[in-house]
Amino acid sequence: MIRRFAVSLGGRIVAALLQLAVFALIARHLGAQDLGVYSVAASIGLSALWIADLGMGTRVLRGDSDDDSRRALATFLIVRVLITGVFPLGGALIVSGSSTETGLLVAASVLYVTGESSGDVAVGLLQGRRRSALAMTILLSRRVVALAPVALFAGADAVVIASAAAGMFGTLCLLVVSAPQLGRPMSLVTLVRQNLGIMASSGASTVAQLDVVAVTSVLGTQGAGLYSSALRLLNPLNLLVTTMMQVVIPELASATPTDRRRVFRRIRRLVLIFCLALVACSPASPLVIQFMYGDGFGGAAPVAICVTVAAAISAFAQVHLAWFYATSVPRAVPISMFGAILIGIGAIWSLSVLFGLSGAGVGLVVMHILTMVAIVALWRRYAKKESLDE
Predict the structure, then answer these.
(1) Transmembrane stretches, by residue range (predicted)?
(2) 388: burial class by Cβ within 10 Å (0-12, 13-18, 19+)?
(3) How far apart are CA 390 and CA 261, in angstroms?
(4) pTM confidence score
């Protein structure tokens, strides 16, 4: 497990750096105004994708290879191929009254997030099969495909080309990786019923992407662009925890209850140290924003500090959520997460009205605190129940 973690962490560090470079170049090519349009389209696309994901993005990490899992994967693949064509076209039609450039930008943004989601499932499939080296090779290839056009060319056209190329490549990776594991498709209703708990909890996390829409409704696309530029730090900051979860979930899923608790306690201690380090480093995050995007994004500095703190809170919550993903997801988990996130989005909107961009950042922290408290409280209840049952 340690070797797989080292390979995965190394690959994800490089991938995160490449992704930061991609977004920094996109921001410089588009400017804050068009970046806001691009980010809102991506946010709405991601929020819609939680349904189309059908819970498979997390389920594949368990590494199951029985006939039921193969049939589930086949059904998911059919749905994913269909939406890869439909979602970008739908995005372009929604803004058809705007300029052609805006329509292309929206379609490319939606295609990009759809392909990213597909590529992540491909990586998850390989991680579940404990093939971390190949998983990281695919992840890095996706980042290079996205980086090349924005590094070689300039302007909005480069962003459209990069987004479309990366989106299609991510879908291609999923097709190639999943092909040897496909069975006869099951009914869509059966798949949804099997994955409902995972779908609901993943959906709650995806709905959190609507924070950009809430900010846009108050501060406009300019404010959304600044907010999104800082928000892009969230995933790289959670890199260690995300990598750890992809390696640990297969181990937790196959372990006995006693071994599961032992592994979990060890991982949680490591993550807690990481969280405290993030909070301590948060005052330096505005310097990262200025370095990445230039002086035109200096207004995002207060949000950057809040994003770093939110990343620490989210990391601690993710560890406890991994326990449920490796075992089972009770109905109370997604219900509590949805409630916390919806209240958090309301806080982001309200504080944006009162305090502008700084208020939006504070609202983001509030949302992650509420979500973390809900997940940890439920984990304590169900982990204690498992201990008593044993």
Answers:
(1) 12-30, 36-56, 77-98, 104-126, 133-152, 158-177, 270-293, 299-325, 332-351, 357-379
(2) exposed
(3) 12
(4) 0.68
